[in-house]
Amino acid sequence: MFLTELKIESVRNLQAVSLASLQKVNVFYGSNGSGKTSVLEAVHLLGMARSFRDVRVKTVISHGQHDCTVFGKIRQRPDVSLVPVGVQRSRDGDVSIRAGQNSVHSVAELVEYLPLQVICADSFSLLGGAPGVRRKFLDWGVFHVELGFYDEWQKFRRCLKQRNKLIRSGNVAAAELSVWTRDLAHSGVAITKKRSDYYEKLAEAFRCTMTLLSPELDGLELRLIAGWDRTRTYLEVLEASTSSDLERGYTQAGPQRADLRILERGRVASEVLSRGQQKLVVCGLKIAQGRVMSEVRGVPCVYLVDDLPSELDVEHSRRVCRLLEELQAQVFLTCIDREQIASVWPERSMLKTFHVEQGAVTPDNDCDD
Ligand SMILES: Nc1ncnc2c1ncn2[C@@H]1O[C@H](COP(=O)(O)OP(=O)(O)O)[C@@H](O)[C@H]1O
Ligand SMILES: [Mg+2]
Fold first, then answer.
1. Residue 53: CB within 6 Å of ligand 1?
2. pTM for the predicted model, two decimal places
3. How many domains does the chain have?
4. For residue range 153-212, what is the model confidence (pLDDT) as tens digits?
5. What spacing in Å lies between the alpha carbon of 20 and ligand 2's midpoint?
6. N or C: where does the chain have the smaller number of CB atoms within 10 Å of the terminal CB?
7. 270-283 in b/e burial notation, b at 16+ Cβ within 10 A?
């Protein structure tokens, strides 16, 4: 995936930004509050129709404007032509997405055009946050790598909703409940199979990545938690917990409770690692996902890396950059001073640098680089 051109209108302090010369590695540098993270947010809007900083679009749209628009040209593979993609979001909640000549009706359809990985301050929640954050991370990979996951996942959500509705109705016919229980068990097992197939690939890629990134952290381990007691089948667990589900008013066990535990010598990584080490683990996880995606799909995802140098020493920053470079992925990075990236990227000539100042983004002349 490669974004060649980007136009941004009314995203935070970026009123009208047009970048026609994007390269494989793009560095946005400038002082605090100049608009660097907003550029990454705009790319994220294009890829996922929302920001990575805030789910509320109102905060992203420039003050005083009714809507924001991001337009880009995307090359999905070297042998295919560019697809123009546009996303517009308004304060009323309207979303308009176009790709090529067509309207796009779901985010699931949109994300195929520009699969993104984000490394930013919020990424620490991957280690210390609720299981839902890690489930989302895991499912991003399952969605992009394991065929048929999205349909199966939707089926599971529908069954779970129906079963919970019935449980809460207060008037449960045993026969009807057992139909939903069977369907739920069936699709729960199917999505768990896809999750564990993906997990195997991810765990191996993570292990290889961390060896290169931080060999001193040699006790790291990823563990997939399915969401129910695996010594029994999901159907058995659901049947055994039916009366307690009825008491509580919802289905307790299942893939909706899955987690991807990140452990260091058996302890929760967020509780024992330093902030810098946690950032390395976050980078390792995100790079591992990119590696699996490249291996299976043959195309890398695009990386948005906000403030790479923070928390990392020079040697570890250099290793992160080397791994990103080896992935052959397109990368958008931000930093305060461009030297912070230029001095750690493997090949300085690969960098396209942009100065961001009060919402204006200006490419440096190549001879300055
Ligand atoms: N909705 C908005 N409308 C206009 N400006 C905004 C909005 N939200 C934030 N800002 C401003 O946008 C500027 C750029 O923010 P940001 O991209 O986070 O800066 P940087 O990453 O360069 O430090 C900040 O000065 C911030 O106050
Ligand atoms: Mg910022």
1. no
2. 0.96
3. 2
4. 999 999 999 999 999 998 888 899 999 999 999 999 999 999 999 999 999 999 999 999
5. 22
6. C
7. beebeeebbbbbbb
